[in-house]
Design goal:
This protein is α/β, with parallel strands linked by helices and 748 residues long. The protein has 31 helices and 22 strands. The chain is elongated, with a radius of gyration of 31 Å.
Amino acid sequence: PVNAQNIAIVLHQIRANPDYSLHKKYVAQLLGHNCHLLRKQKGVEYITVPEGGRVVVFGDTHGQLADFLLVLQRHGPPSDKVTYVLNGDIADRGDNSLEIFVIILMYKLLFPDRVYINRGNHENHDINRKPAESGGGFYDEVVYKLEGTIFLMFQIFFEMLPLITVINKQVAVMHGGIPRIEGLTLERISGINRRRQCPKVVQSPEDAILFDLMWADPQEAKGISMAAQRGPNCRKFGPDVTKRFLSDNALSLCIRSHEVPTTLRGFEERHDRRLLTVFSASNYCGMAGNYGAIVVFDSEMSYTLEEHMAPDLDSMIVEYNKTAVPPPAAPKLKKSNSGVVRRTAQGDEPTTNLRQSRDKMNSEVMAKLEQKICQHKDELWWFWKEIDSNDTGLIHVSKWREGMSNKLNLEIPWASLQDELARPDEEGTVDYREFLHRIRNNAMAEGLKSVDGGWEKQMVVKVYEAIIRSDLSLKQTVAEFDPDGDGVVSAWEFKKALEMAQVDIPETQVTALLRMIDRDGVKLDVGQFLDRFQVVYSSAAAEGLTAAESTTGKKVRDLLTRVGRRLLQFHGNSRMKIFEEVDTSGDGFVQEDEFCAMLSSLDIVPSLSDADKKDMWRYVDANGDGHLNYFEFCAAFQVVDVLGENDSAVSEIIETIVSTLQRNMSSLEFAFRFFDQKGEGCIPVEDFKAGIRALNSSIQSAQGRTAPLSEDQIEVLVQHVDKDGDGLVDYNEFCSAFRPKDGRFLEK
């Protein structure tokens, strides 16, 4: 039964460890009883402030349990003196929407006249079914913790929720905004058919009313206009619309939520203070850095705005468990289906001081945001490059904001962040190439062992070996990369060349190299470009990454170093020119006799024996086909990089790989746990490979893109994660190795 004692027990369990869920049958009962309670509910709910008490109005909480518990702790549970209004968007994005709903549902049954819930746009099936990174997540959370039938019950409950709550006949609380329909009254809103999903396409006045109450945003211009950033059906409403709606319904104030205020405060007053936006999820999605807020009305209808910056949930749990006394008859906690164990918070004690909390989290917020940017660099680059039709590398800051909003799918006030992130000039112009290069993902997997110069270089070597295996003659190589014969290579020519040569390089890594070319200028000299493209491979080969470690191998590399220096003395830095002179037959390849003749002509002291020349030839003929193509020839020697020692190809490609792994880490962890039936934290190497390949396949099928890792790169990864060579992989260590390091990713 729902009584004060049982609510105290459940609330204690949630505060002590929210990963221990209430059993699905009890959640089903809570939903069923609440639906029965709401069966006669109209679309507009009228409430009054308790005599000598208060009404507490929440904005969006989006599964951020810490914010909800903080407010509940400050104002106490619902009672004769305390009424709560939750203005929608409890679901999605955060990890603990279910726990917030459980608390609300219990209190609603115990105090039906002291708990009210408005419907938001995220209390809707199609949004809930999206993954969390695309704005949803509630379906995944419920199915993970309970089961799918509970999710369907939630949808029935959502459709029964009212659309507006009116306080003391003076203040209207709605989630989105004022509908586009002129002369709209509360009576008409109350009578519409709301027991359905929010329409995807507006086809009638009733559709428009329901849709706008969920989705509309305010604007400073008068009238109604499109809200393109949210979707084709979405509208914005001006101060005249607000004034008219309040006048038509004898109201003095409209409270809405739905978006983080542009000031990054927890509230924002607009439209001559007739419209108040309140948003309760502080540091929204762990990235926005905003305050949260609630509105508190007293019985005289005066209101105060209370802002907060909630400590992280782990810290709140630790603090609670230090002093909490379990309620009488509290049962032993049973672990939820998720199998997740709550982490113990480390470091400083949590504080609720606003300024201290804001300063403390600023670095963490920006680091997470920049990680998100790195995970979507490809989409951002293509989006802005299409806008940048003249290939200037410059866009207006409004287009920067549009790209960030569309591709990162984060509803946060980018205008407040643009100065720090985008760094527009006085005319509002952003160098998007510089922006994408400046923000780096530094999670370079410190936990992986370093062998032969590090796993990162070995990963990149596989990219260059794919080019070598194409075995093109010099003429073919130039023709492939410079089809119009103008002597320069554009990013588009590079991409087309790889496609025509059927080179096996993951698409995301190709795009990373395209960004590198594009950043350096619209086009590169073909000779310099080919030099640049192979220099990392050359360096890696010099470190022995493509040959067996042996005494002979070391001797050969030393000899090749001497030869490379001698070639530079005679021919300068043009590797293409050197290749053409050595290729005396002009067939576009260097044969063994041509290679040996080149060695003899250099007059190296001490002189090279025939055996030395044979060893060198076997070493440099990487694919063993009896001749050297252009890339094999270049890779044979330690040649100075004419474009600088800190070539960015390694960092661009590795960042792409790391960001892909980070973006899909939850899916990988799920796959690894599936293979780990005994829960030992280790799986066989072959199962690890199967997990990575499954990720490749899911990305290919879901996104229509090529796999993010090639088979060769998967093998490299396996070599480094099986540290002791016992054929087992500690997948927990692997997953944690690719999580972000502390601190900022943004290069100053």
